[in-house]
Structures
1.
Amino acid sequence: DIVMTQSPDSLAVSVGETATINCRSSQSVLYTSNDKDYLGWFQQKAGQPPKLLLHSASTRDSGVPDRFSGSGSGTNFTLTISSLQAEDVAVYYCQQYYTPPYTFGQGTKLEIK
Amino acid sequence: HLQLHESGPGLLKPSETLSLTCSVSGADISSNTYYWGWIRQPPGKGLEWIGSVYYSGWTDYSPSLKSRVTISTDTSKSQFSLKVKSVTAADTAVYYCVKHEFYGCPVHWGQGALVTVSS
């Protein structure tokens, strides 16, 4: 199985500042035939299902604000939330869908400082 | 507008079989463009992929659950289902049905169904 490890487990950031969450996979999730990383980022607010923010490591899903951006390739990835807003309080997960079992990181809890 | 809705019993006893159905509206469940899956989340914990079913009927399951899990589709009803045999308290979780796009990313999620296993 591909192990997904996120860091940090939690962080507190002031409104208007930038939050950075890292995700590392135990093996590459880059599909070389189409040069796409099979890596998604999800946001889960309390009491709600997860919501897709980014797929292919850096492509925002429809309707996702451009404050959310993703970077990285291969085994190291970053989710960056710029100009943090109070509504961004949530748990964030990365997931690889390169090969089954499609594993998730343990989650990063984002709070407002 | 795509909607996924999970339904099924919310309370089971140990050793019983968990059965959940996901009703799909706004998408063709038999299309070869997408596939469908189940993901669960124990209370206060992280997300675990259970398995997925492809338009061809092929299934993939998590190795940790493979011996107990069956996922199938009923295209006539625009539904797909999850069965987990011999449940224990460790199977207590919110179960989400999902639609995969972009080479496998779970893009659309149902609201989730809480299943509690307790004697």
2.
Amino acid sequence: DQQVKQNSPSLSVQEGRISILNCDYTNSMFDYFLWYKKYPAEGPTFLISISSIKDKNEDGRFTVFLNKSAKHLSLHIVPSQPGDSAVYFCAARGAGGTSYGKLTFGQGTILTVHP
Amino acid sequence: DTEVTQTPKHLVMGMTNKKSLKCEQHMGHRAMYWYKQKAKKPPELMFVYSYEKLSINESVPSRFSPECPNSSLLNLHLHALQPEDSALYLCASSHLQGARGYTFGSGTRLTVV
């Protein structure tokens, strides 16, 4: 049972436009949601996070939105740059019990930003 | 120092070999993790150490044996692996509280022949 899902395996966007990456989750026992960026042959790099009690967090070109009623979050990148091309993973952090602190990852979305 | 350092970067081992993967961080993080990532898949949690004690073992086969000698070091001892164990092994660390999640190392690319 996959608790964190990214249903779009890939996304292609023109440079300067907005990239929107989506993520859905099925378990409410998460305290933070995070986005990671991964280049080939490297470990994932933290991008931005949002607390489960917030609905928006912004950091420069990156904004994460959380819709708790829909169990959905999205990452907006504006403006998109070719250097943003990578695999983006959504992750959810366990809030308690045996899952406290544990990150569960989505399948990832390959973002390609064309010049 | 804001990095997690993993060695070696690449490892090829036979099914009868014994090898170890090493991970080091000096950020004062008291939680350390081993993840396994196969191609085109998300990272999968293997082990969690909290204050140098094993707190989570995600039903990992005993041919993988973790060790946390101190708060900065994490090892993964490998013995009698199978070809399907070939993957990218990622180490990560984090504070036990806070919003930034984990800091990942660059991983060890393991090939079992």
